[in-house]
Amino acid sequence: MYKKTKLENGLRIITNKLSGTASATVLVLVGAGSRYETTEQRGLSHFLEHMFFKGAKKYKDTKEVSEAIDSVGGEFNAFTGKEYAGYYVKVGVENVEIACDVLSDMMIHATFKQEEIEKERGVILEEYNMYQDTPMYQIGWDFERLIFGDQPLGWDQIGTKEVIGKVMNKDFVDYNKQLYTPENTIIAVVGNIDEEKILEMVKKYFVMTDGKKAFEFLPVKKMDGEKIFLREKKTEQAHVAIGFPGYDEMHKDHWALKVLSVILGGNMSSRMFLGVREAKGLAYYIHTTTDDYMDAGAIVTNAGVDLKRIDDAVSGIIEEYRKLRDEGVLEPELQKAKSYVKGKMVLSLEDSEEFAHLLGKYELLHNDAKSPEEIAKAVDAVTIDDVMRVAKDLFKAEKMKICVIGPYDDKARFEKLMGGL
Length: 421
Prior knowledge:
This protein is an alpha+beta fold. It has two domains: 3-205, 2-Layer Sandwich (Cytochrome Bc1 Complex, Chain A, domain 1), CATH 3.30.830.10; 228-420, Cytochrome Bc1 Complex, Chain A, domain 1 (2-Layer Sandwich), CATH 3.30.830. 45% of the residues lie in helices and 18% in strands. The protein has 16 helices and eleven strands. The protein has helices at residues 44-51, 62-70, 96-109, 114-132, 135-148, 161-164, 169-179, 195-205, 254-265, 271-278, 310-327, 331-348, 352-366, 372-380, 384-394, 411-417; strands spanning 3-6, 12-17, 23-30, 75-80, 85-92, 185-191, 228-232, 238-245, 283-292, 297-305, 401-406.
């Protein structure tokens, strides 16, 4: 069972001992994702993530940061989501102190030198170009923009070229001071650790200046905008995303929707995979997932399909939504999906980084870390009635959204196909 400690300055430390591993992960999560940005700051959260690796007080540049972790065979990385950013080091358990040393130096003493900012602009612009040239990434961002509209939750984390090209040292210093504060930070340490020693170690290294989080992100505004978005692009394969607004992460039917998404397209024995890919040969990849945020969500099926058979593929995906809503779910199907959700969680939590992320995320966003046992219990409680209530509530023609990347410019073509629901 995890342990939680809250220091006087508000910093929360979560520890969890995993006996069956020789590794440990130190993860820092901060409520500083892209939802906190304004139009003039789009991409600043992600850019800042990069800048923390550019050197600080003890480890003065990227070379010294990376060598410190490489020298013990560790892994380190970072990510920027919409509601939080994360930084982690995974090492053999005997090297946890090195992980704390490197991460604390990066996070507390970063200087954001202007010459490093100038160099990193080019790196991030190339990352931007990579996503633009990778429809499998871009289709997801296009769909969220369609669902959530022109507001922070609908923006992608990479930002705009304009902002990437002009942010300066002061922008990073101010943003860091506003959000990277003790009470807006979680440090999660998971692995084969001595929890008392780790707690003292974290206290020793993560000595953070007192300060309060300057602002919260704005609640999502209800959007009733366009139903179809086409990104006209010459491609060898069409990429489609078809889905509906979903539920926020604390909604009573959150886990029912998760189970429903698995039944629809969560694995190779799901309805979308067997019905659209295997039976009809209409797609190469196809999967259904949910996006879950504090005050909003979505369910979406993504697929890569034959350019000439896109109408059949879109109709096939919509038909699977309709059949589940109108014809129901069988008990064996439900049980298989629930077992899949729990089984994938068990497998992922063999990785100390995944376990740290799970505990840290719930603590940061909801002030209540959740154990795998609590999650499994919530999944077990899902019934057929729950799944059907969700399907009938969400799978409505007026709620459907479709995104397409490919050589198409005729929205009317896809509007006709939406009638199949």
